[in-house]
Structures are given as C-alpha cells and as structure tokens.
Specification:
This protein is an alpha+beta fold. It has one domain: Fungal kinase associated-1 domain (TATA-Binding Protein, 2-Layer Sandwich), CATH 3.30.310. It has helices spanning 14-27, 89-103; strands at residues 2-10, 30-36, 39-44, 56-62, 71-79, 109-116. It has a six-stranded antiparallel β-sheet, with helices on one face. A hairpin with an 8-residue loop joins strand 4 (56-62) and strand 5 (71-79). The chain is globular. The mean pLDDT is 88.
Length: 120
C-alpha cells in the first residue's frame, strides 16, 4: 500500500478552511465521500485507473490549536498499489494535491511538512 502524508499550517481561520479545502480537492478530480466539522475524506473518480490505484485522501483539521488567523491540517493520501516505483500513481496524485494547496491564493502557507510512508 502506498501512503504519503503532509501537514500544513495555513493563515486562514478554521471556518473558511474547510470549504476552501473541499474546492481544492474537487479541482484535483477528487470526489468528497465524507465530511465532518474537522475531517474530510475524498477519493479519486473511478474510470481512469484500476481499482487498486484509486487514491483516497483523508484530511484532518486540527481544531484544538486553531486560532483566528491560522489553522493546522494533516493529509494522508493512500491506495492499494504497491509503491514499487518512486513515481507511482499515488505519488502523482500526492504531488498534484500538494501543488494545489501550496499554490492556492486564498491562504498563505506558514508551515509545510511532507512525509512518505510506503508500505509493502
């Protein structure tokens, strides 16, 4: 299973972050499957790749440390594909979503930490 993680601190209040995140995920061709006040689950639209390669994105918004000017969020992107190549499908989607988050003009990235947890 391929799994990639990232954490961001953005200069945006909690109440605006969730809606903007949903827009960013949709712009990356991801369908929102489930959402709560501090959690979003999205998945790649079926049809372009095999079922095992479909990427699921989970976003956790840290409400406990949110302030009026900044909010922290963590993302996990994963699929059932074995990460036998560095540039696998899950990593490509990770790069696409990460770029969309970083380049979004609605917020400013204060901190960004990316990680990689390939599991075989």
């Amino acid at each position: 299973m391929a799994r990639y993680t990232s954490s961001y601190t953005v200069s945006l209040p909690l109440d605006r972050l969730k809606q903007l995140l949903i827009e960013v995920l949709k712009s990356c061709s991801l369908d929102i499957l489930y959402e709560t006040i501090d959690y979003i689950m999205a998945r790649e639209k079926p049809g372009q790749v095999g079922f095992a390669k479909l990427v699921t994105v989970e976003v956790l918004i840290d409400r406990s440390t949110a302030t009026a000017t900044q909010t922290k969020m963590s993302l996990v992107m994963k699929n059932e594909e074995l990460p036998l190549q560095v540039d696998n499908h899950c990593h490509q989607i990770f790069d696409r979503v990460s770029e969309a988050i970083v380049s979004n003009r609605q917020w400013q990235i204060i901190e960004n930490v990316a990680g990689e947890l390939p599991t075989i």
